[in-house]
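Troubleshooting: if your tokenizer reports a length mismatch, compare your output against this known-good record of 96 residues.
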Amino acid sequence: MQPSVLRQKIPWFPKIDFQACIGDQECVKFCKNGVFLWDELKNRPEVICPLSCVVGCDACSQICPAEAISFPSKEELRRTMRGLIQEAHQAVATQT
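Known-good structure output:
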């Protein structure tokens, strides 16, 4: 399933600090949306489908014992969403 155009404008996906990652694969096991894949050659997780991450969900970062996963702040997410809503309102206004 292809992410929507709107989803592509929302920069919400995990970033992995490979220096901190302990390679326990908890993120890969936990995420049921296919965001992560375990790279056998590098022996670490990779974010392969960032747009499959549920906007606002940071559960994988919460379960990571090494705190190696980060996301934008919730305030950054709110600013992005407000901007997209404003953009959508402006688009509708110009169409009428």
